[in-house]
Structures are given as structure tokens and as C-alpha cells.
Amino acid sequence: MSEELEYIKSETEALMKKAIDHLEVELVKIRAGKANPTMLDGIVIDYYGSPTPIAQVGNIVVLDARTLSIQPWEKNMLQPIERAIIAANIGINPQNDGNNIRIFLPPLTEERRKELVKKCNAEGENGKISIRNIRRDSIEQIKKLQKEGLSEDITKDAETIIQDLTNRFTALIEKHLQVKEKEIMAV
Q1: I want to staple 138 with a disulfide (CB 3.0 to 4.6 A). Which of 12, 51, 95, 110 is the partner?
Q2: Taking a C-beta distance cutoff of 8 angstroms, is the pair 84, 56 a contact?
Q3: Which residue in 71, 75, 69, 80 sits closest to 104, CA to CA?
Q4: DSSP labels for 132-181?
Q5: How high is the pLDDT of residue 32?
Q6: What is the dihedral of CA 145, 146, 147, 149, to 10 degrees?
Q7: In whole angstroms, what is the distance from residue 140 CA to residue 102 CA?
Q8: What pLDDT score was predicted for residue 77?
Q9: Is the CB of residue 142 less than 8 Å from the CB of residue 135?
Q10: Closest by alpha carbon to 8, among 152, 143, 148, 167?
């Protein structure tokens, strides 16, 4: 039985780490005033009939703290890239000069900063929900083992271990959110 409990614990921890990794990826996409090529990660364009990420059809370079430049490998991709960025509705307008697409990030207003913090908190809440769902599934597995003959004391100890994991990962989410909020609110 202890092997099964150890498996449940390690599986729970691995799933919770994946939830944290996902949160980190989502938080990187939320811009904090500095140009970052990962801001464009979720944007795909129609590349000869197949949806393709922008990073795979051109070179994305940070020119300065507020400017990104996209140089497509094929000039005929300038228009589709520009349309995809506008359609993504991420609050930036691309400028096409015939060779490159430049993206100038406007300075963040106080109101926009607060919106971004709310968006970060929403992502954090999604992460916490994922963690709680993983906890629930793990505890259900432990209860199943109890019905199969696992003692009540061992069941309670296992549930405590799962709860401790949940608390640890929830605190990690809070820490990520605090760092991101501080980064966004810094002028």
C-alpha cells in the first residue's frame, strides 16, 4: 500500500509543478512595460494554409525597452503578420515599413497597469483552482485505497501530506503574483 501512496504523492507533486509552469508561461505573456518577444507567443498566422506561430515565420528582435522588430523571412508575410497582431487584441499596433514590422509599446498608464494586475490575479486564481482540483483527485484516490483496506491513520497522514503540498504550491503562486505585480506597478 505504501508504494501506491508514494506514487499518488509523487504524481500529485508533478501535476502541481505543471500547473506552476503553466502559470509562469501565462504571466510572461502579460507585458510589464518592457518589450519581450514572448509577448507574441500566443499569436499565430495563416502560413500557406496552416496556423503557424509568428516566431516560426520571422525573426523577432528587441530593439530597445519599448520596441520590438519582426523581420519575416518572406516579404509576402508582412501583411498576415500585421493582421494577426491586430486581431490578437493585445493592445499594440504594428507598423509596417515594407521590410520589417515594428511594434512600439506605449508607456503603461496607471489604469492599464491595474488592468494587467487584475489579469495576473485571474491567471493566479486559475492556477489555484488547478492545484485544488489536483488535491481533490489525489484525496479521492487515497479514499479509494482506504476502502480497499488502508488504515484510517495512514489515510489521514496521506491526506495531510497532500494538503501540505497544496499549501506549498498555493504559496508559490502567491509569490509569483507578488513579483509580477511589483514588476507591473514599477514606473
Answers
A1: 12
A2: no
A3: 69
A4: HHHHHHHHHHHHHHHHTT--HHHHHHHHHHHHHHHHHHHHHHHHHHHHHH
A5: 67
A6: 90
A7: 52
A8: 85
A9: no
A10: 143
pLDDT of residue 161: 93
Beta-carbon neighbour count of residue 36 at 10 Å? 18
Backbone angles phi, psi at 58, to 5 degrees: -165, 175
Predicted TM-score (pTM) of this structure = 0.73
**Rounded Cα gap, residues 34 and 92, in angstroms:** 13
Where the chain has pLDDT below 70, the residues are 1, 31-33, 187
Q: Over the stretch 164-178, which tens digit does the pLDDT of each residue have? A: 999 999 999 999 999
State which amino acid sits at residue 96: N
Nearest to 78 by CA among 50, 57, 61: 57
Residue 187 has a pLDDT of 62
Residue 79 CB neighbour total at 10 angstroms: 13
